[in-house]
Amino acid sequence: MEFRHLxxxxxxxxxxxxxxxxxxxxxxxxxxxxxxxxxxxxxxxxTFDTADVYANTAAETVLGTALKGxxxxxxxxxxxxxxPTGPKGHNDSGLSRKHVLESIDxxxxxxxxxxxxxxxxxxxDVSTPVEETMQAFADVVRAGKALYxxxxxxxxxxxxxxxxxxxxxxxxxxxxxPQYSALYRVIEPEVVPASRELGISQVVFSPIAQGVLTGxxxxxxxxxxxxxxxxxxxxxxxISRWMRDDVLSRVQxxxxxxxxxxxxxxxxxxxxxxxxxxxxxxxxGASRPEQVHENVKASGVRIPAELMxxxxxxxxxxxxxxxxxxxxxxxxxxxx
Length: 336
What we know:
about 325 residues, alpha/beta, TIM Barrel, 8-stranded parallel beta barrel, two-stranded antiparallel ribbon, 13 helices, 10 strands, about 15% strand
């Protein structure tokens, strides 16, 4: 396992990070989830990403159980706040001071720790002044409940606002967690340049495009039984944007690139995002321990420029590149 600095900070995280979105507390039984976390630990993953909204807080509880007994100082635990949790009352979402300060305490209790390494704003809150949010984060840091602050799916302008306020308040905004893969590159034109300027790293989710970049979905073919595309609990909806024959046909062309590198298609997809020097880590999920053992082999892979160009040529115009997608996909009002 290789490690990278997170933003312009002294904190290092494992470049393969284990995340439990769409799995723990919902799609995967608890025993299997714990086995996956232990597999991650066995292969050298030290960084674990979750959020209070995942399975309505259950994912944090499962992760806390799985990490119980581990040396806390050897781990980096990331969680998030914004989306509705609990009974989903009128103050149970967003980035208000009330919700942030109450949510961090709930997350710490579920995770079984007295602090998280990075506490992340899961989205931008249009209903709360950003000054209020950043002051609340500053107080979380000063209380020792989080060591650093990050965000998720913020635009370049939002990153600049948040970074300036954090600096004035005396804490570090060091990370952004966007969707990023060889198929979805909307952060490249604006978010990545702004982040380099500000000293912010990307911790990216869906590097395998919800499984599409594994090549297991074929044009005109039925999705494999038990795959995300057959999951009615949320997975099928998340993957639907890529389940088009033009996308699936182009993904099949990546097999020759993976073969030359002696990688699986999934390993190629994870290694591809790690070629971006602004990416500190790629988040992988798993429903079985063997998936962890497989995907972690992407750590340390260097893809030659010629093969990176072949990936571009193979995927062609099915790649989503419009930077406006980040803002367009953001909530326009606080969810309830």
